[in-house]
C-alpha cells in the first residue's frame, strides 16, 4: 500500500469563520504530534509575504512552526527537508507554473508518495494534488508548461463546487455542465466536486469525505451522484489513469 497521507480541503475560509477555522481540528488530527514544522507554499497568491504571515499565525496557534518556501534560497532542498507540506489557495495556474519553475513537481511527489510526509492542500493547493488542473475554476492568468499536476491521486477535484441556483436568472453554464464538457473528452478521470466546507482525507489506499457539507461525484458517461460526509471514496484511488502521468 501507498504511504501517502493527504488532507484536501475545498476552501480556506468558510462563511462566518476565520482562516482555516472550519477545518482546524481536522488539521490537528491529520498532522498529529510528530510534525513540528510545516512547509508552506504561497505561490498561488502574488503577495507571498502577507500570505505566509496569515498561514504562520494560524499554524502557530495550532502548535506548529511554519516555514514559507518562498523565503528559502533553495526551494528543492526545503521540500527535501520538510516534515509536512501545505499548499494554499489562490490562482491555480500561477501556483502550478511556480511549482514547475522551481522544479518542485517530482520532489513533492517523491516526498509524499514515497516518503509518506503529510500533504495538505486548500483550494488551488487541492487542485494541484490531482491529475491535472483542467477542472479548476480559475482564469489562466499565466501559462504553466503543462496542465498536468502532482498526481498524488488518480482523479481530479473541483473545489468550491457550486450547485445551480434555482432562483437565478443567469443563463450561463453551470459547474455541472462544465464538468460534463470535460468528460466529453476521451480518457478523462473522475471529478469530485467538493462543496465549501468539505474535504477529502486520504490515508494510504483509503479515502474518506469529511467536513460539514457533501460532495458530487462525476464519472465519465454516467449521471453524477450525491455523497454525504463519511462516504468511503477509496475506489477512486484504484484507477488506470496513473499510467498517464
Tally of separate helices: 7
Radius of gyration: 17 Å
Task: Assign the structural class, choosing from mainly alpha, mainly beta, alpha/beta, alpha+beta, or little secondary structure.
Answer: alpha/beta
User: How far is it from the N-terminal to the C-terminal residue, by CA?
Assistant: 19 Å
The H-and-E topology, N to C, reads as EHEHEHEHHEHEHEEEEE
Helix-residue proportion: 25-40%
Indicate the CATH topology: Rossmann fold
Characterize the main sheet.
7 strands, mixed
CATH architecture: 3-Layer(aba) Sandwich
Tell me how many strands there are: 11
Q: What global shape is seen?
A: globular
Which ranges are low-confidence, i.e. pLDDT below 50, for 5 or more consecutive residues?
241-245
Strands in their spatial order, largest beta sheet: 3-2-4-5-1-8-9
CATH class: Alpha Beta
For the residues shown, what is the average pLDDT? 92
**Which homologous superfamily in CATH is the superfamily?**
Class I glutamine amidotransferase (GATase) domain
Proportion in β-strands: 15-25%
Total domains = 1
How would you describe what is shown here?
The protein has helices spanning 24-31, 48-61, 75-81, 92-101, 105-114, 124-127, 175-183, and strands spanning 5-9, 37-41, 65-68, 85-87, 118-122, 156-158, 191-194, 198-203, 206-211, 215-218, 225-227. The protein is an alpha/beta fold and 245 residues long. The protein has a seven-stranded mixed sheet, sandwiched between helices. A four-stranded mixed sheet has the order 6-7-10-11, with no helix packed on it. Helix 7 (175-183) links the parallel strand 6 and strand 7 (191-194). The longest helix is centred in the first third of the chain and has 14 residues, at 48-61.
Amino acid at each position: 500500500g501507498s504511504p501517502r497521507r493527504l488532507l484536501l480541503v475545498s476552501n480556506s475560509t468558510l462563511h462566518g469563520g476565520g482562516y482555516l477555522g472550519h477545518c482546524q481540528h481536522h488539521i490537528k488530527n491529520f498532522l498529529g504530534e510528530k510534525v513540528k514544522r510545516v512547509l508552506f507554499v504561497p505561490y498561488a497568491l502574488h503577495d507571498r509575504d502577507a500570505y505566509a504571515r496569515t498561514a504562520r499565525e494560524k499554524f502557530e496557534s495550532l502548535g506548529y512552526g511554519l516555514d514559507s518556501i518562498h523565503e528559502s534560497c533553495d526551494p528543492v532542498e526545503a521540500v527535501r527537508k520538510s516534515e509536512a507540506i501545505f499548499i494554499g489557495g489562490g490562482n491555480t495556474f500561477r501556483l502550478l507554473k511556480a511549482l514547475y519553475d522551481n522544479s518542485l513537481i517530482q520532489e513533492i511527489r517523491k516526498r509524499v508518495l514515497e516518503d509518506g510526509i503529510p500533504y495538505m492542500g486548500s483550494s488551488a493547493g487541492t487542485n494541484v494534488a490531482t491529475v491535472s488542473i483542467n477542472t479548476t475554476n480559475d482564469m489562466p492568468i499565466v501559462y504553466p508548461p503543462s496542465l498536468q499536476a502532482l498526481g498524488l491521486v488518480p482523479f481530479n477535484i473541483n473545489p468550491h463546487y457550486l450547485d445551480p441556483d434555482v432562483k437565478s436568472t443567469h443563463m450561463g453554464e453551470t459547474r455541472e455542465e462544465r464538468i460534463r464538457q470535460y468528460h466529453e473528452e476521451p480518457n478523462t478521470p473522475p471529478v469530485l466536486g467538493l462543496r465549501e466546507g468539505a474535504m477529502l482525507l486520504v490515508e494510504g489506499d483509503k479515502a474518506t469525505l469529511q467536513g460539514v457539507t457533501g460532495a458530487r461525484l462525476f464519472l465519465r458517461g454516467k449521471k453524477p451522484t450525491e455523497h454525504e460526509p463519511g462516504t468511503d471514496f477509496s475506489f477512486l484511488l484504484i484507477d488506470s489513469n496513473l499510467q498517464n502521468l
